[in-house]
Amino acid sequence: MPSSDRSLERTHGIITGDRETTVVAPDDHPENNKSENEEFAKSQNIMSDEQKTQHRRLSEPEKPGRYRSLSNDRSKSSLSLSKKDFRRSQSSNEKSQCSSFPDVRLSKSEDVRGINKAEKKLDKYGFIVNMDSNGHVYEDGTEDPVPTVTQTKTFARRERRWTGMMQSWDMTSRRRKLLSKQLRKGIPETLRAKVWTLLGNVPRLQKESKDTFEGLVRKNLSSSAVKPEIEGALLMRSESLVNSPSFKVTQETIERDIHRTYPRHNMFHDTLSDDEDDDDDFLECLHDDDVSSILAELEQPSESHEDVAIKKFRDAKGGQAALRRVLRAYSVYDRDVGYCQGMNFIAGMFLTFISEEEAFWLLVFVMNEKPCRMRGLFGEGMKETHQVLYIAEKLTYQFLPKLAKHMEQQSIHITMYATQWLLTLYTSSFQFDLVTRVWDCFLAEGWKVVYRVMLALLQNSQSTLLTLSFEDILAHFRDLPKITNGNNIIEIALKIPLRRRHIVKHQKEYARQAN
User: Is 492 exposed, middle or buried (CB count within 10 Å of its CB: 0-12, 13-18, 19+)?
Assistant: First the structure.
């Protein structure tokens, strides 16, 4: 950098490089009275105790063996500092003295570390509200507002009512109209987990099924389920399943989708623990003697590789590990369906409220039993997905004819915006204030509430959509989940005069056309 440019940069005591920001003290700082070259030369003659130890290790003859801890080049390079490293160490000491300058900026790597140290602020559903688009947590962030006195009294009254209903659940489940009325008001947050398991007959499924969740997890384990270092060590009884190409594709698809599931939720956000980082550092520092000792311990009789792998897979912590177990267990439970994209959001949403075993059996319920029966959406050919979209389109023409005609004129087909909504029942994109209210009703009433919410979303945006053209309409639908108030949409949805006979009518029309 030319001296004139350097003097300009020193106005606030910083010099900005291409790769990093190096803080430089002002001209009158005492450190600037020393010659940088003199300091650098001195540093070459000074060795720390740690460096001396490494130097002695290098001077000893090498022991024969398969493993080496550090290469000579790498060890030697640690004994001396380059000028670039020296300047960097000097600047880091000066940063603390120049922290009062407002224009001092961290380098990219330092900035990331600083952001991730910020405390996470969560909403009532566990989503991180102070996270940017790159997944970094920052200091600011708005939290859920404190409920008013009236809201608190209403919540307490509903809790008491639901507690009484749950105590006599056999009677409550038979009183369908009373149950639907209360569900449409919303299940209290503190009781939702328990009520969902009751609505989904989870206790009955656990008792009556010939399979257990843990047993299905064990059946699922294959070489793809564990780390590469023990690949091939598992001997599975159901080899025809785990070795089939379709099974391997299913596992790979699950693995890809797990990392896309609710990355902003606290349960699924941070999957790499500090312990795992420490393990990596430990392995890099192993010496010959250390490796020999570890290998000797491994030769002692211990649990089989299969038992170790199963235990490790079963006991893995974190939301992603739980979601992996649930989805893989279901792929074994229902081999015809296996896994299809979209199921990850449903199972992941369950996991934010209930245990992974309960989430598995609730997934079994919504996929296979009335009134939900979502299995056809994810089966071969996704035949029922086409039926659901057909019904949704017909209902749009029936209840919102002006908007439906405008969308047709703009060449906007329902598959362009509603497929994701209906296939995942709003779990993949909308906020949980809407998602939970939809599922409160869906578990007891079935598909009617799903169509009602779709119509409510369109009706609420109708005045805006009628003024937009093709590209702007699609942009509006992309932004819609972020600006939607779930409680308002539910209120609109419940006022739409949709009846079950309307749905049945269009189901029959679709069946005739399909035949």
Answer: middle
